[in-house]
């Protein structure tokens, strides 16, 4: 049997596919968002399908790459309700700040425009302090 030149096999498609797969693998290796030590793989499949007389064979070439997956990212989200508007908020927690702790930017941004009260879940709330306003006075000195 005469040896087949893989450079010219399938009108050069074999070489083009292998080169494209190698380029894909090298880009994945250089990607800082992938695990550097993970194994990458290129699988080359050459399929042969002969006719009934076995004198003609349809041949197909295919490459498949197995790449390292992108590294996941982890973050934390703090959720709550805005006491001025009653809307639910979700904010990514800054890694340099303790959850629930206000920064100086938050203090300046949270100063109320009207200084009044707002309705939250059917209760009247002071927009500046977050205190729930009520006409009912509770005497804690009385025993139940």
How is the secondary structure organized here?
Blueprint: H1 13-30, E1 41-50, E2 57-66, E3 77-81, E4 88-92, H2 104-109, E5 117-120, E6 123-126, E7 132-133
Antiparallel strand pairs: 1-2, 3-4, 5-6, 6-7
Strand proportion: 25-35%
Number of helices: 2
Shape: rod-shaped
Q: Helical residue percent?
A: 10-25%
Succession of helices and strands: HEEEEHEEE
- Give the termini distance in whole angstroms: 104 Å
Strand arrangement within the widest β-sheet reads 5-6-7
Give the beta-strand count: 7
Largest sheet: 3 strands, antiparallel
Structural class: alpha+beta
Average pLDDT, to the nearest integer? Answer: 84
Structure summary:
With 144 residues, the chain is of the alpha+beta class. The chain has helices spanning 13-30, 104-109, and strands at 41-50, 57-66, 77-81, 88-92, 117-120, 123-126, 132-133.
What do you see in this structure?
- This protein has two helices and seven strands, in the order αββββαβββ.
- It is α+β, with helices and mostly antiparallel strands.
- Strands 5-6-7 form a three-stranded antiparallel sheet, with no helix packed on it.
- The N and C termini lie far apart (104 Å).
- The model has no long low-confidence stretch (mean pLDDT 84).
Structural features:
rod-shaped, 28% strand, three-stranded antiparallel beta sheet, 17% helix, alpha+beta, 2 helices, two-stranded antiparallel sheet, 144 residues, 7 strands
